[in-house]
Amino acid sequence: MSMENLAETFVELADTLVADFDPVEFMHLLANRCVDTLAVDAAGILLADDRRELQVVGASSDAARLVELFELQDRRGPCMECYLTSAPVTVASFAEQPQRWPEFSSAALDAGFGAVHALPLRLRAQTIGALNLFTVKAGALGESTIRVAQAMADVATIGLLQAQIITRRDLLAGQLQHALQSRVLIEQAKGVLSERLSIGMSQAFEALRRYSRSRHQHLSAVAEAVVAGRIDVDALGAERREPT
User: Fold this and answer.
1) pLDDT higher than 50, residue 156
2) Which residues pair with 204 in a beta bridge?
3) Which of 57, 171, 185, 204 falls between 20 and 30 A from 223, CA-CA?
4) Distance (Å, whole) CA 115 – CA 132
5) pTM value?
6) DSSP letter string over the chain?
7) Which residues 6+ apart lie within 8 Å of 108 measured at CB?
8) Residues 171-176: what's their mean pLDDT?
9) What is the mean pLDDT of the chain?
10) What is the pLDDT of residues 15-50, one digit of tens each?
């Protein structure tokens, strides 16, 4: 693990977070960079979905992906334990007995792996998944390697949570803009009805609302249709005293 390679890894991870962030592509980049930088043989990444169910979102090899999928199907193993406890979990040898997760260990051995180190994707009290490092040879990773791996996991976590915040912010901004535009349309439609039907603005609003309810349409859609001339205003006015 050279300093140059380490610096390139963090620069590349940071660059990926800037524009047009693609979480899936980022997870695959992280998995591959773990192999290149940490001298492990494979890496896999599990993330929790909206139901807090773990999903495989990145893997550096098919073998790692299959082992991860086996663990999720069995719902037991070091990577799941890491996520649930928010603490690192190490299985230094899949061959050494007794094994806490014998089925997982057998699957990992069959895939050609001798050990795994699972690190939490965690920011303060929030854990969103686990980064799993596989080696062909049995044995624990060095302390410095673990520190670097956890730093990479931390960068990934920050990036994913930031992307989530941006997505929510953009969604909220879009909803707010839609609400503002709808309010303008409604005011315009009230003006049209008030002038055409010689009624007050409050009565015009009640006519719009009654029409939208009776036809199960959004109020903003009815207002837009009134402004665009797609609704017979006189017919709408004739309904304005009918009960809802």
Assistant:
1) yes
2) none
3) 171
4) 10
5) 0.65
6) --HHHHHHHHHHHHHHTTSS--HHHHHHHHHHHHHHHH--SEEEEEEE-TTS-EEEEEESSHHHHHHHHHHHHHT-SHHHHHHHHTS-EEES-SSSSSPSSHHHHHHHHHTT--EEEEEEEEETTEEEEEEEEEESS-SPPPHHHHHHHHHHHHHHHHHHHHHHHHHHHHHHHHHHHHHHHHHHHHHHHHHHHHHHHT--HHHHHHHHHHHHHHTT--HHHHHHHHHHT-S-HHHHHHTTTS--
7) 67, 94, 116, 134
8) 57
9) 83
10) 555 555 566 677 777 888 889 888 899 999 998 887
Which is higher by pLDDT, 18 or 209? 209
Q: How many CB atoms lie within 10 A of CB 101?
A: 20
Place of tokens 């299959």: 66
Amino acid at 205: F
How many residues comprise the chain? 244
